[in-house]
## 1
Amino acid sequence: MKVLVQGKVRGIVLKSEMPINFLGTVDKKTGMISDKNHDLFKKSIRNSILVFPSGVGSSVGAYTIYSIKSNNSAPLAMICKKSDLTVATGCALANIPLVIVSSEEFTSIQNGQNISLDTKDQNIISCIN
Amino acid sequence: MELTKEEESALKGEQGEIMQMAYRILVATGESTDAEKLVPIEWAHLSGVNYNTIGDAGEEFLSSISKSARVKVKTTLNPMGFDIDNVSNYNLDEDFISKQLSIKNSYESIDVTPSFSCIPYEIFNIPKKGTQVAFAESNAAIYANSYDNLKTNKESAFSALASALTGKSPYSSLRKEDEPNITIRMKVDNPNELTYGMLGFFAGKVGDISVNVSGLGEMDRRQCKAMCGGMGTSGTCAKFVFGEGNSDCEKIDFDEKEMQKIHDELNTAEKGDIITLGSPQLGLDEISDLVDKLKGRSFKKRCMVFTPRIVKEQAKKIGYTNELERAGCEILSDCCTCLTPLINKDDVDAVTTNSIKGAFYLKNSNGVDVNLKSLSQIIEDETQ
């Protein structure tokens, strides 16, 4: 597990098996995914712990992440399987905690789970019952 | 990643919100690229200036940081969306103009040198060999690494901005002395600038971080520049090394067949409605060569020439701009073929150019077709 942006939050997992292109497919005002071919279509990433494989597309997408945060529609934290510079810099700009996990860890995180994420803790990610 | 006490304190927010954000970007970038530390840099070159590319989110972000942020090292700037002296001549909408001006003002208030150029390596003095810099413009990063013996990663707009604000950059990938693991063997005879551009485009597709290129002989600045422009367009690769490389390098040939494939990919029209020269922007030697080629001739259609303001001023003193204007050229500074809003698919179906980078972005961002030709061919076909 690798910490890219530090932080401590609790929240409900919103999990996608598909990469996210922040530029153009996430509504900056609502945090809603507008790509109808995406498994999170019409779902809002707002206040979730967003778990997805990685970001794709233009690096300008980092500004989109910053915008979503400015509009109070951003996820509480993001967890990815692969690091990419768009999501990394976007989360850094917006101060959204971001960690990279292994494939096994990624598989073990379930949609709808209530988890706590604390990058300073020994167990960075833990389940809350 | 190991941080010094001062870097840790900045990351905690003890040096203000802007420094905290900048260090967050450096750490996130460094951790993603397996850097073990940050190193000082002496010069940052920023991208993310054109409103066409960064949009409202970028404009708002820059405006908000411009109130308190200041750059710590020499920082230069990529082109924006228009020539500040000719804004009213191009039917740009008011919203575009005001947002672009806001971006310009934001950068100026954080003490960035308003160079609006994608060829910093031709208009500024080059620091000594081995100097660490942070260039976000792809062609400039490749040129700096390959030709000027400087060291930079292929930065993002954000990592370069963070480097400008802190004077630091993650010590990863191209800042280290790793050797390329691929060698491209140049097998095309009688290359012109278009050939070098396509070779670069090919190299960017097959390479990952850096590539060796063999079979080139002695190269001049302009051939290198064409190659850098092509390479930065097609991939993440940000350095070429001249020579065969060591024996366990994978060898790949760039021959007539590979070149034709790239030509077919980028050349989508038989002829253009207008001509553009410069992406990357033209330097003084290219302007001089263009003036020579245009002696006694003039363009039969509109020809836009993109060059940095400082080069335009030099060219004016020598009398080149008069010559170019006489031949029908429209000289534009502060902007570039690449990602310009000045070329619009409502007015233009296809553009003739000798730029690989220009061709790619005209097609993919502006949505116009491209007729790709060498400069000599353009002069032969399009002037009288």
Note: The interface with chain A takes residues 11, 21, 24-25, 27-29, 31-33, 48, 53-58, 60-61, 156-159 of chain B (CB under 8 Å).
## 2
Amino acid sequence: MKPYALITGASQGFGKAMALEFAQRNMNLVLVALPNSGLSELSIFIKQILIVDVHYLELDLSSIESSYKISSYLENNNLSIKYLVNNAGVLSRGFFTELDDNYILKQIEVNVTTPTLLTKLLLNNLRNNAPSGILNISSMASFFALPKKQVYGGTKAYLTSFSRSLAKELKQDGVSVTIICPGGLNTTTRLCYQNRLMGWITRQSVLNPEDAATIAVDALLKRKTMVVPGFINKCLMILDKLLPEIIKDKLAEREINKLPAST
Amino acid sequence: MKVLVTGATGYIGHQLAMSLASKDVVVHALCRDIHSFKVPTHKNIMVFEGDLCEKSSIEEAIKGCDYVFHTAAFTNLTCKNIHNFYQANVVGTEHLLEASLEQGVKKFVFTSTLSVYGPSYKDIPITEKQPRLASYSNDYELTKSMAEEKILAYSKRGLPYVILNVSKVYGPGIKTFSNGVSRLIELMAKKDILFVPDRTEVMCNYVYIKDVVKAHIKVMRLDVSNERYIIGGDNISYNVLFQKIKRLTNSKIRIIKFNYSLVKLGVVLGNVFRTTLGWPGGLTPSVLDALFVNRSSMSDKARKDLKYKATSLEKGLNQTIKTLKLVS
């Protein structure tokens, strides 16, 4: 039987693009996303049109229970997981002082706790299907200091650091750990609109999720440790090392101020 | 019965307002310029001066209306500034939704586009169930999708809606950006040579304007709400479309195909040139891509629920060509 790729946050944006990318490479899928997020429609479409097997689970990943439910679902249905994609994430929403306590906690649950726990719970399954791989979706925000992205950037920095260390540990088991750090992506309509309001360079750096998904899955299959997708993003990473702090702060501030008032 | 029609000076809105008025429906037409020659005139049509971007100007026009037909949109794809699209298509729609909810409108009928579904997957026609598979290729698609999201949000607050996703509309009517097939027909009737990119095997769906108008009136009359329908006609390739028009207009035109990448490069360079000189926008690479991507679709849901019937392309083109000749 063909092994499965498990993707969290698969109903929209980057997760959806990756589900399609895996399906087009003829891989079976286990998709996880929030209830009423269009997951069933997507799953049925992929199953019927792209002709791969698709299981889907509608779960809220801000609860620890959900990770255990995923794990037992895989056991009960005897599904072999070859690739785990930790994609689900809660985005940033404004200044720290203005953020709701529960929002922050939820962000940490979804962005930190769940991918960590899910990796732990699925590790035996992945080991049994070696050579296999984990793909963690981080962000360029894990490298930069950005206002309005404090907790988000922090959770992504954790994920980057966690993945790099884990990669070393799991090498002997034949389980690769790949981290992808995208910059801006045209995912939700709100983000697409925000991205269109940015300065020229930032706009050029924004990638469409389907293009970033191809890069991500390629990196996973080539067992790379880390990838920053897009030429301009790669340049920004180099510039970050070269430019003095004061200029970087000015540039970051200018772009952040172009964001419309948070809703 | 009273209804509000926005975009009454537009391609679909004009004919919709006239058709409703002829059926003894009192039409409130919201227009920015009430002196425009495009304003529909009929004894049942009352014209209100107003702009969707200013909410207060909608309130007078919507008073006493049972239904709202929102056909107004900013559609000029050559415009490079998203602000125009956002203001008209998103902010304007939200103002109208707010006013409709306050007024207790029975149904909000939104004229949307097939393009919110993105391209079709290979040759599989788009249905209402197809999730969007690629990102938004232009500001029109993006802002129309955002407008649809607003409508879904207002339906949760108690405003019933129907969204009509119309494919490429053709047929007699006002010349606007949305009426590309008529322009093509005129071009083929008058010119000797037509240059096209070599992606003419691309399949699109074409719907006759009168079918679109009928579908709007049907969703008002029938007991359907909180649904979306794809309103389309025949799926055909550009090759077949060109051949059909050529035959029906007795045109001797020679169609010369150019490599798509070269055409696109030309468009890119043309854009750089225009931007440098500060000339107004023309064809952009994203518009070119949007035109040459597979968008075949199926209207089975509309056929089933609305008893929707589409005019064949052959018949529709014939009537369009007749009308165009009457004009010229």
Note: Chain B touches chain A at residues 82, 86, 121, 124, 129-131, 133-136, 139, 142-143, 145-146, 149 (CB under 8 Å).
